[in-house]
Structures are given as C-alpha cells and as structure tokens.
Amino acid sequence: NETAVEAIHSLGTPRIHHDVASFVYNRASRGEEVVVKPTAARIPTRLASAKSSDNHEWIPQLPAPKPQATLTQLNPTLAYTTPIQSNSKCREQLDQATHELRVKAWLSAETSAWSALSFAVGSIQTAKETHQIVFTGNDPSTELHLAHTALFEARDFYGIATSADPIRLETIVRSHRTKVLEGIDLNSITATKASEAYLDDARNRFMKLANYSVQAAEAMDLLAAIYLSRNEPSTMPSHTSLCLRRAALGGQPGNPTLASNLGSQLAEVGLFVEAEQVLKHSLSIQYDRQCEMALAQVLKLIGETERASQIQARLDAESNQNANLSTRIPEVIQLSPNEFAAISQSVIPASPHSTRQVSAQMVSNPSSGISSSGLSSPQYDTIQTSAIAEPSMMQRAMNSVRSIW
Q1: Would you say 124 and 140 are in contact if contact means Cβ atoms under 8 Å apart?
Q2: Is this model's pTM higher than 0.70 or not?
C-alpha cells in the first residue's frame, strides 16, 4: 500500500489522484496486490515540443502567427464617401462656428471650428485615396493630428521663466509626442524658443493642409479669431492665432482676406516689417480701404512718414468726394400743367363708354375748348375723360338699342 501511495503522488492531476486512489482501495479491500505504474504526461498534438538543453523540461513551441492582410486586400471596390460630402459638412460647421463666435459662445465656437477643419482634411484624405490629388508624406489626417498636438503641447512652456532649468525643459520635452527638440542640447535654448519651435512645426503642417483646401484655410483663420476674441491666457491667443493665420495664408497666398487679417494682427503685436509686406500683398490682390489705412499706420510707425502722408492724403480726398456725393441737392425744375401731363403717366383708368362719348363730341363740335395739340396727347384725353360724368342707366339703354338698330 505504501508503494501504491507513492505511485499516486507521482502522477500529474488531482483527477488522476482520485481515480487511482479509488482503484487501490477497491483492490486492497479484496486482498489483491496493487501495482501502479506512473504514466508520462501527454502533450497536445497541436503544439510541437522541443527538448531543452538539460534534457529534463519539455518546452512547447507555439505556431507561427498568420500573416496579416495587406491594405490592397481591404480596399473597398465601391466608394461611399466623396470630397463634396465632406466639404458640405465643413461648410455647415463653419457657419455654426461663425454664429457661435458672434454670440460669444467661445468653447462651442472652438469645437465647431476644429470640427470644420477635420471635415476639410477628411475631404483631402478622400481625394488622396481616390487618386484625385497627390499628397506626399504622411496622410492628411496624420498631419492634422501632429499639427494639433504640436500646437497644444507648445502651451506647456507657458509661464516658465526665461532662464528655465534645462532639467525641467527636458522633462517636458520627454513627455511630449512632438519630437521637434529630440536630440537637441536643451542647455542652449529657453522655454520661449522651445515654444516657438513647436509652433513652427505646427505651422508647417497646417500650411501643407491649407494648400489643398480653401475651407481648411478658412477654418484656421476662424480659429485664430476665436482664440483672440476669447483671450484666455492659458491658450496663448496671440501666438496661436499668428501660427494659424500664417499657415492659412501660406497655403492660400492668393486670398486677400487672409492677408488682410494677418497683416492687421501683425501690426497690432508690433511686427511692423512683416505687417507691411503682408498688407502690400493684400492690396496687390484686391484694393481695400481698411487695409490701406492699416498700411498707412504701419508706415508711420516704422518712420516712413512721407509715404504714410501720401496715402493718408489720398484717403482723405476720397472721403471728401464721397461726402459731397452723399450730400448733393437734386435740381428743381418747374413745369406747367400741360407739360407735366405730357410727361406723366395716367393714374386713373378711362372707361370705354366715356372715351367713345368724348370722341363723338370732338367730332360734332370741333370748336370746343380742346386744342388740336390736346387731341394728339393721350394723357390729356385721359385727364379730360375723367372729368365727364358717367351716363345714366336710361342713356346706356338707349345707346344699346341704337347700336342694335
């Protein structure tokens, strides 16, 4: 029995322990000799076994993973989305964001504007997948994600002192997904320079997207206006709006509105040299009085007073001319009743019976007070007809009988 118990403990599973114990108990109760031989554990047939170097452990080998399907096998045969559909949704979001900006719903306007930009980039993505455009580098959606990430991660440097600790900068940079400063000696840069590097990376990516979509550039300009109107310090409104508007104009350089908005903001923050170039570029595309006034102000601030005076004098002359046109008194002309009747349209319609009666009187009595010149004027005839009373019922009956006879 001791030998049987040792054999039971040498087996593999509790279930085998129970079965062998029952077998030993039943045989022992009948006085029979029990001989138990341990069996080797069986390895599943689906897993091939490999013997280890010490010849004691058996390590199963898992099957190799199946090859994943390539993108060419997953492409649908028919298209379900089009750039036109995405552009339509983008326009709806732009209109909604503009309305929310007008009523000062800043957070809602920001959400709607980013959604509009996402739809615009979706249109670019669809056009690329259908081979309508050639978009090099990353996918448009990836470029938007990287630009958005760089724009928001640049805010982490806000509030750090100019002479920030390099260890602190290194900690911030390592926590970011943007790898602009990867491998750069942080001892030689400040938090301001690091933030500007992030903004430049975002601007280049946004500009690439704006080059393929006017609506994407419009969404960027609207986002800039939203951040400036909200004026939340943690969002760095001036830096963020300049980044977005520079990207929008870089992608659509022929748009005068984008150039005018960027030039005005550059003048407000004190970047006069760049503001002068951008405002001149806007005026070269399309003339705008407000843009020229901003250019005159910029020229005056940078010391070019003569050119500023010339522009201001021309603007003042145009203002005086417009004022004279708006206050001009019309010329008064006096007319006699006959002259007025000759050039005026009748406002009282004439009845056919009265017209025939007046004509009969003219023929029967040519010496009446109506002149020959008056007879040739239909307006005068109409005025005279309106003065004659309508015939009575008896007269109309007699005229009808006479006409029938």
Answers
A1: yes
A2: no
